[in-house]
Amino acid sequence: xxxxxxxxxxxxxxxxxxxxxxxxxxxxxxxxxxxxxxxxxxxxxxxxxxxxxxxxxxxxxxxxxxxxxxxxxxxxxxxxxxxxxxxxxxxxxxxxxxxxxxxxxxxxxxxxxxxxxxxxxxxxxxxxxxxxxxxxxxxxxxxxxxxxxxxxxxxxxxxxxxxxxxxxxxxxxxxxxxxxxxxxxxxxxxxxxxxxxxxxxxxxxxxxxxxxxxxxxxxxxxxxxxxxxxxxxxxxxxxxxxxxxxxxxxxxxxxxxxxxxxxxxxxxxxxxxxxxxxxxxxxxxxxxxxxxxxxxxxxxxxxxxxxxxxxxxxxxxxxxxxxxxxxxxxxxxxxxxxxxxxxxxxxxxxxxxxxxxxxxxxxxxxxxxxxxxxxxxxxxxxxxxxxxxxxxxxxxxxxxxxxxxxxxxxxxxxxxxxxxxxxxxxxxxxxxxxxxxxxxxxxxxxxxxx
Length: 450
Prior knowledge:
By secondary structure, the chain is an alpha/beta fold.
């Protein structure tokens, strides 16, 4: 019941993660029109659970850097690659912390999707500009021409400091652009310093297909599962240490200098509410932890399949709809899928224009049983049944389509194109679990936390 406080393990009965909205319109791909975060999103009736407070305060990479007297950056001319969610544990912008740091000279900022202050819509390219808040030049890596920092942009810069809040999902673009930044810096002899931050989904959940090598793109820069279980600092370590991740000659990779400043107090079992940190929205449609969970859970399933997410402009990445079905009918269809750890309910609200609207809201009822990507692949199969013969066949057939790059598996895409409503989602899921267990063992060499 609303407002009820239950003494239950947090991850056994997860907060009904409020929010679903297309895979893009957040830093996912940039294909869908941006949807501004609602000024006041109505709260979904939900159980209120109290996650345990961490035994000690979590120190983010920027906090550890400060505690170390800024030793890694002192005396250097640096550029900062960050965004609105790049803050210290008190919520102060990393850019401001570094600008005030003694002996540190911040000479420029790098801007990626959404810009430094979320001033650009998803997928909107932009040129260099002057940051009105700090007066620093913003060097664009999202200009439609180059993704890597150029020699000219890096002129006079000794190190690029990266502080980006990732969400643990392969298609979210921030970690991809970090890889591009590492490549450009390594090619030009510039050090990269990554300030680590939590993976909001924790470091234990791994789900979905591992990206096929020929499908690497701006929405998939690493050959990892769709939900990958690494922090952004661990991804950086993998990029710098594993041959073939960076698209640079091996000799250049071997000479490149990467410094990762780890967190203190975080461990792999921690999901965001257990950190005690305030979640700062990473992009217009990812304004809370609930949206992070929803993005992982339905983003792929709502990518041009006929399913849409959100209830009106509210609950990005958590409301579900399908044209021609009422909320009650959709709940019936979804319940019949019998997906472990997931539940559905009808949610009715009145929008800003006074219009009453309703939709299907997706809950995570058991965190331990929840497989983050299972619902998305079930939605693809269900779409084929609801809209015969096969609404995704054309998407798959289009060479280099965004849908292919997002899913990341030719094997599944071929089966979905061929079999439609009879595609063996369960079989693929089991195969992915087996491969992902091997992946987790192989990537332990890059782990910074247990």
